[in-house]
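Quick one, tokens below. Sequence please?
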């Protein structure tokens, strides 16, 4: 169903879009964005749009507001349709402005209650002595109730204001009696949980000197794979209009379920949302039943750019420099934080300058690199296949990348080892290993291999005590004292070597953020962003980056061709976006021609990296098939294999969650397997025969050592009781996990079966169920009286232990950061207990490569670092 463009324009002429009460919709750029949405939503029956914005939250706010209005004006459900769906005995809500629960008892004629004959009334009862007869003009105030409360009153139901009716009348031009309580339309929105929470709770619309919040207009819920979490305002527990989820897979399930209200569209917000479900996006994008699909991210979105090339008939809104010059003004209509931030972002994109610093004198001159590449390719292309050859190529390539990208001398590895900062083999050890591997090559390849080794040795000698990028960085830090700067490195451990080995004084690091290319936060704004080489990551590219007006790339002469190749690719891509922009741009540039040298530079990297990826995949797929030790072992499915820089590996299951350490700050984040990146530093427990979870290890050890009071010890016992009881019940009765699920659901548990499976999964460290009733149901099937009689106490204990775990995780990061920085906590401090146990309980593994796989390994091999 196409929407009348004029209706949408008319609606937004009568109201203002607000976030946290601040109006944002009057600015020219956002008005232009609104025009884009209006034109494209109505353009065809199935529309696909790509939004590449400045990075401002305002674009998400406008998009969510537009889809909300579209749901309101596209609704076809009428009051009689809703009333006709009720059966006698159903629980309903009725009242204005305060609603209460009633039992629907059907229709009666007015003559039966002393009213006009022929007039229909609905009979609603709360008890034998409380009955209401609702006339037809009030039927619109009756709505379904899908909750599980058996109380026939208004407890727990918020009083509604007249604002919703006022909005329908004043803005949407409805007659009051035609205002629907329930909508038959919805939109699925993919966004991180915190972002979704912020949007639904803070978006509002201003009209006629009034303000109405988003959740007063429509209902909304957040969906996980297992559960639905309703936002406030959905008193009847009805199907939400806005359906948020963090995963494309869940969005797919919602769209394909075939139940409930009509899905008008799909919205995907942010690069993370796009990347986590990129393989599933094409199917959803092309669903003809959807009126619209909008993919929304910032201008630095790599996958967004790919989609604009891959999807036909895509409407494009891209905030390129040329677009912004024609669609923004210097004068701001509103003066608030959001508009100021938007203006800063616009100015940054318009004024952005990519500076190039070429360091000519170093050990990695072009002729040296050419000699290395030539011999590596000859080895790679030779019809000779052994594990030694594979290891040689991977190790040599990795070592050359270190020499070219490192902004520190190579002698820092020895210093770091002496100080106990990292456990990474030094370049000297790696070169010795390369010589050993080369000795096993046939004579024709041994010559090539020894040339490769000699090249690496020459560079090592040159970079032993200094190198060009280190000297440049040292001068830069002195010249930019106090400036807000992001310094992007390829590996997290580079930060440890830069900061922890005595190269610089700490005062040089004030306002300097060291971050990997895969963990760069493009929402932060800097005076300057530095890339210390021709590398990029899923979160950073020097040409797409808009986090500063000044972006400096520091490269060696041998990296020039690769740099120019990416520069031209980006330039030509921007030209294409300008040509294909839905909103016409008059000022456009010519494309640039890529040279053969630039093509070759890109080709070498791709050929070697593809080779390494294939080696990883083939090796992982057959890792244990020929080893009799694994016969009869219980297997577990894995989805990724991580190779660390010490040659250990981790085989990760779908449910694995890792603790990623930001070595520059000491912050630890818990991330899923799909979110792990090359260059990450992951914290594992050394005591992995006992538990694979570092937080569980430390919590248990602190309890054993008597670091908590008796009250906390009792909470820990209670918090573990529910799961221990459930697992023991399953094992003692010989039940499968599926049987336990069936028993729980039969007992009336209101959770999804996948949730119960996660409770029983050893890789899921669930502290406790998210509701009291689930604990009671566990008690019912296991027969554990404490769970049946005191589920509230168990629930509170789980909440308290969950809070303690979070504090431990924060302190693990701080303790490791202190270790890496050579600091010690004050004596007697609670932190000291964790600090003392870090060496014995925790180890940091740094990710070299990640291979996505679909295979199985013995359970003992999963989700922990092992050496094979």
């Amino acid at each position: 169903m196409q929407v009348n463009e004029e209706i949408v324009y008319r609606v937004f002429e009568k109201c203002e879009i607000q976030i946290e009460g601040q109006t944002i919709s009057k600015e020219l750029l956002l008005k232009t964005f609104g025009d884009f949405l209006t034109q494209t939503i109505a353009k065809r029956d199935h529309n696909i749009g790509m939004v590449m914005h400045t990075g401002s939250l305002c674009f998400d706010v406008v998009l969510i507001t537009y889809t909300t209005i579209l749901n309101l004006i596209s609704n076809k459900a009428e009051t009689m349709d809703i009333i006709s769906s009720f059966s006698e005995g159903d629980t309903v809500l009725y009242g204005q402005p305060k609603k209460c629960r009633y039992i629907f008892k059907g229709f009666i004629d007015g003559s039966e209650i002393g009213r006009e004959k022929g007039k229909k009334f609905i009979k609603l009862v709360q008890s034998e002595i409380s009955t209401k007869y609702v006339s037809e003009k009030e039927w619109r105030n009756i709505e379904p109730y899908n909750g599980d409360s058996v109380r026939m009153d208004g407890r727990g139901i918020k009083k509604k204001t007249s604002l919703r009716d006022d909005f329908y009348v004043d803005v949407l031009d409805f007659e009051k009696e035609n205002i629907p309580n329930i909508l038959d339309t919805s939109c699925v929105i993919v966004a991180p949980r915190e972002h979704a929470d912020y949007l639904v709770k803070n978006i509002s619309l201003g009209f006629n000197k009034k303000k109405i919040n988003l959740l007063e207009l429509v209902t909304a819920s957040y969906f996980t794979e297992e559960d639905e979490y309703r936002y406030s305002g959905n008193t009847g527990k009805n199907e939400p209009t806005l359906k948020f989820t963090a995963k494309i897979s869940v969005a797919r399930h919602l769209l394909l379920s075939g139940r409930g209200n009509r899905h008008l569209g799909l919205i995907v917000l942010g690069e993370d949302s796009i990347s986590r479900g990129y393989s599933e996006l094409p199917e959803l994008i092309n669903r003809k039943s959807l009126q619209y699909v909008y993919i929304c991210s910032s201008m630095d979105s790599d996958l967004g750019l790919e989609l604009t090339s891959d999807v036909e008939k895509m409407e494009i809104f891209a905030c390129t420099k040329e677009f912004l010059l024609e669609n923004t003004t210097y004068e701001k209509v509103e003066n608030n934080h959001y508009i100021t931030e938007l203006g800063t972002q616009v100015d940054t994109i318009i004024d952005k300058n990519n500076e190039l610093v070429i360091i000519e004198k170093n050990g990695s001159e072009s002729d040296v690199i050419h000699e290395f590449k030539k011999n590596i390719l000859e080895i790679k292309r030779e019809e000779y296949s052994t594990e030694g050859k594979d290891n040689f190529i991977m190790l040599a390539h990795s070592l050359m990348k270190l020499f070219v990208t490192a902004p520190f001398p190579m002698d820092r590895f020895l210093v770091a080892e002496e100080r106990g900062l990292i456990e990474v083999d030094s370049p000297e050890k790696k070169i010795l290993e390369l010589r050993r591997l080369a000795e096993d090559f046939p004579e024709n390849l041994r010559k090539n291999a020894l040339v490769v080794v000699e090249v690496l040795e020459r560079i090592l000698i040159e970079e032993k005590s200094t190198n060009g990028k280190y000297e440049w960085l040292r001068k830069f830090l002195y010249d930019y004292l106090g400036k807000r700067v992001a310094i992007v490195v390829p590996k997290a451990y580079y930060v440890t070597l830069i900061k922890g080995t005595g190269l610089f004084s700490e005062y040089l690091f004030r306002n300097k953020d060291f971050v990997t290319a895969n963990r760069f936060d493009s929402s932060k704004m800097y005076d300057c962003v530095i890339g210390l080489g021709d590398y990029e990551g899923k979160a950073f590219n020097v040409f797409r980056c808009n986090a500063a007006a000044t972006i400096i790339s520091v490269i060696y002469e041998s990296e020039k061709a690769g740099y120019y190749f990416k520069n031209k690719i980006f330039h030509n891509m921007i030209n294409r976006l300008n040509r294909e922009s839905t909103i016409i741009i008059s000022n456009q540039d010519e494309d640039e021609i890529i040279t053969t040298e630039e093509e070759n530079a890109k080709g070498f990297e791709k050929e070697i990296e593809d080779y390494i990826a294939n080696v990883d995949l083939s090796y992982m797929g057959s890792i244990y098939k020929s080893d009799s030790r694994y016969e009869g072992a219980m297997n577990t499915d894995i989805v990724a294999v991580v190779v660390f820089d010490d040659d250990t590996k981790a085989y990760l299951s779908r449910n694995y969650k890792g603790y990623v350490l930001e070595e520059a700050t000491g912050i630890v984040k818990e991330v899923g397997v799909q979110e792990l990146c090359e260059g990450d530093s992951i914290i594992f427990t050394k005591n992995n025969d006992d538990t694979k979870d570092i937080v569980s290890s430390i919590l248990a050890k602190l309890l054993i050592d008597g670091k908590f009071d008796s009250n906390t010890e009792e909470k820990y016992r209670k918090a573990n009781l529910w799961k221990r009881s459930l697992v023991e019940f399953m094992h003692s009765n010989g039940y499968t996990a599926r049987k336990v699920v069936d028993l729980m659901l039969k007992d009336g548990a209101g959770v999804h079966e996948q949730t119960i499976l996660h409770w029983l999964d050893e890789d899921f460290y669930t502290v406790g169920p998210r509701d009291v009733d689930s604990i009671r149901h566990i008690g019912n099937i296991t027969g554990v009286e404490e769970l049946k009689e005191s589920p509230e106490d168990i629930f509170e204990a789980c909440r308290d232990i969950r809070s303690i775990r979070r504090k431990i995780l924060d302190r693990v990061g701080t303790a490791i950061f202190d270790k890496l920085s050579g600091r010690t906590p004050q004596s007697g401090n609670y932190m000291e207990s964790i600090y003392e146990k870090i060496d014995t309980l925790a180890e940091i593994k740094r990710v070299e490569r990640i291979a996505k796989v679909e295979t199985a390994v013995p359970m003992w091999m999963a989700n922990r670092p092992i050496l094979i």
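Residues 791-821 form the longest helix (31 residues). The longest strand covers residues 842-858.
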